[in-house]
Write a structure and sequence with these properties.
Order of helices and strands: HHHEHEHEEHEHEE
Low-confidence stretches: 1-36
Strand content: 15-25%
Number of domains: 1
Helix content: 25-40%
Bound molecules: S-adenosylmethionine
Strand order of the largest sheet: 3-2-1-4-5-7-6
Radius of gyration: 16 Å
CATH architecture: 3-Layer(aba) Sandwich
CATH class: Alpha Beta
Mean pLDDT: 86
Largest sheet: 7 strands, mixed
Length: about 220
């Protein structure tokens, strides 16, 4: 069954990333108490339709968003996967997850499970349960040289056979916003680390300020 992607959320706020729509989060505007808990989002930096076309989510799929921030992508994914699907939205910040849980409750969303979870630690998920794993504008925060292999091994564990891993990163170039250039990761740096665990790049898309790299793993084979 094909699903039309029509899930523009009412805001596209971005704290430290978006050069234009800084601090436009609806929580921020409507509820000062909630403002502190509203995670940042890259959702408004690019056309989410391009992102979700690449994610290729289907009704009934299980989607994992690690470092979910405000949860904009998770909420959009929840509409696509529907009641027969499931979305896991993980973030290391308890405050961010608290804000997302408020959002899910106020919108009556039942198919998103928001949890505090650190990507450098074992994920609270069973083996082979995720169709699409997504990480947006978060990997630059992690020391990939130190933790990269551990992270990709863990993502591989939770991905189903033929599951896909899609990662959005800030381009490794000088920009007047976002992380400093020394923190930014090139597609090649991501690909080379993922390759250590047997992932292969299947696509690379230019999103303007960011890029989206997609990787897959032939799970029936052991890592090289
Ligand atoms: C720049 S925000 C991106 C939010 C969202 N992915 C997006 O692009 O809209 C980075 C998020 O990653 C989370 N984060 C940082 N380190 C993390 C870790 N080790 N494990 C899980 N989440 C982490 C932060 O709390 C923050 O919410």
């Amino acid at each position: 069954m094909s699903t039309q992607i029509n899930c523009h959320l009412p805001w596209s706020g971005l704290f430290s990333l978006n050069p234009v729509k800084k601090n436009q989060c609806s929580h921020h505007l409507n509820n000062k108490g909630a403002a502190r808990r509203c995670g940042s989002s890259s959702y408004g930096m690019h056309d989410p339709k391009i992102v979700f076309r690449e994610l290729n989510l289907k009704v009934g799929d299980c989607f994992l968003d690690v470092g979910c921030g405000s949860g904009d992508y998770a909420l959009c994914a929840s509409k696509i996967v529907g009641d027969s699907g499931l979305v896991y939205a993980f973030d290391v910040s308890p405050m961010v997850i608290e804000g997302l849980l408020d959002r899910l409750t106020s919108q009556g969303v039942r198919n998103v499970k928001a949890r505090v979870s650190d990507i450098t630690c074992p994920l609270p998920l069973e083996d082979n349960c995720i169709d699409v794993c997504f990480i947006a504008t978060m990997l630059h925060i992690i020391d990939l040289a130190k933790n990269g292999e551990k992270i990709f091994t863990e993502l591989l564990r939770v991905l189903k056979t033929n599951g896909q891993l899609s990662i959005i990163n800030c381009k490794k170039e000088e920009q007047p916003f976002g992380p400093p250039i020394h923190m930014r990761l090139s597609p090649t740096e991501v690909e080379n680390t993922a390759k250590l665990c047997g992932f292969k790049k299947t696509n690379l898309i230019d999103l303007g300020y960011n890029y989206l790299i997609t990787l897959k793993h032939p799970k029936n084979k052991t890592p090289p």
